[in-house]
Amino acid sequence: xxxxxxxxxxxxxxxxxxxxxxxxxxxxxxxxxxxxxxxxxxxxxxxxxxxxxxxxxxxxxxxxxxxxxxxxxxxxxxxxxxxxxxxxxxxxxxxxxxxxxxxxxxxxxxxxxxxxxxxxxxxxxxxxxxxxxxxxxxxxxxxxxxxxxxxxxxxxxxxxxxxxxxxxx
Length: 169
Prior knowledge:
By secondary structure, the chain is α/β, with parallel strands linked by helices. It is built from six helices and five strands; from the N terminus they run E-H-E-H-E-H-E-H-E-H-H. It has helices spanning 15-27, 43-52, 70-77, 96-103, 119-131, 135-161, and strands at 5-9, 32-36, 60-66, 83-88, 112-113.
């Protein structure tokens, strides 16, 4: 099976955040790979990965990083594939440094950036990109989106049953 999406993280300590992307891709039955590469500690490996990604059959790269968050930008600089950045919350600046690093890319080197620790949304965005050329996946994704509204409708019905002394509905 050939991976279509690559989930890259700067360190395995980012796995608790990035596994949300992996779980969603798994649920959507999209082949993916997961690797740890550091823009600062393994720069040659990151460059090689990015330059070979398209020829390996990858379609989208999800790159998570905290602190200086150079990984998504370095990958974007070395590939023509879409790169989705996931700023990972760190202990020092709560991920704000990472989000700014991803958002402030120079013209021509975009990194689509989701919320801090937003790996699930990164995977959803990757699926939306892939669904543009895959009718079966588009149907599966439409069913997922319909399920979101059904969850809220169910939750709202359950809230009507919650009793409080001064609750009006």
